[in-house]
Amino acid sequence: MKTSSEVLLVALTHSSFAAENGVESNERLEFLGDAVVDLAVADAIIKDYPQLNQGTGSLTRSKVVNESSLAEAAERLDLGRYVRLGRGEIKIKGHARPSLLADTFEAVVAAVYLERGYDAARDFVIRELDETLREAAAAPDEVDPKSRLRHWAEVAGLGTPYYEVTSEGPSHDKEFVAEVRIGEVVHASGRGRSKKAAEVAAALSAWGGRDNA
């Protein structure tokens, strides 16, 4: 039986590292964590947002439980620094890939669930996703710019948009710059006082360019 630290280590072990070192990857934990995150958010919607019905509740959940928001939660926790990657993933900066970060967040949620139970896992999920959930519940029918761009790109068969974010200025007064790529093409950039604001600005700019194309 694994200890708490061993379970967490597995949660932070990407399949690329596991393959190179003959250890267990976080894929099974990711599978479990996906279900726990989904249940935790649905649980919070039912308990804390009585104004939402089945339809608006489903829309709200979909705006919270997705690659983008889970990757942002992983970034806030700095999971990219701790996830164990194989040499190939390190070369392509896998620690910054949204899909990898989102999967790692789910695996960590599963580790919390296995070690401390559902209540602790639910509290962890809601604490990390609370702001996103509140924003989504306030306007469940609105499609945010990033979701709108992602939907268009995926339907068009172009893949999922990927945001590369850098920062400028001193630590106490940073401004973030985001470039949105679809495939290998940089479609637009945007600026903001947070990573999220910069990404939203880039998505808005990319969408405007699509309309004017």
Keyword list:
213 residues; mainly alpha; Ribonuclease iii, N-terminal Endonuclease Domain, Chain A; Double Stranded RNA Binding Domain; 3-stranded antiparallel beta sheet; 64% helix; globular
Question: Concise description?
Answer:
With 213 residues, this protein is mostly helical. The chain is 64% helix and 11% strand.
CATH superfamily of the largest domain: Ribonuclease III domain
Q: Describe the strand arrangement of the main beta sheet, using strand numbers.
A: 1-2-3
Per CATH, what is the topology of the largest domain? Ribonuclease iii, N-terminal Endonuclease Domain, Chain A
Uncertain segments are none
Shape: globular
Taking the alpha carbons of the first and last residues, their distance comes to 58 Å
Count the beta strands. 3
Oligomer: single chain
Task: Spell out the blueprint of helices and strands.
Blueprint: H1 4-11, H2 15-21, H3 27-48, H4 54-64, H5 67-76, H6 79-82, H7 87-91, H8 98-116, H9 118-138, H10 145-155, E1 162-168, E2 175-182, E3 185-192, H11 195-212
Antiparallel strand pairs: 1-2, 2-3
Helix pairs in contact: 1-8, 3-4, 3-8, 3-9, 4-9, 5-8, 8-9, 10-11
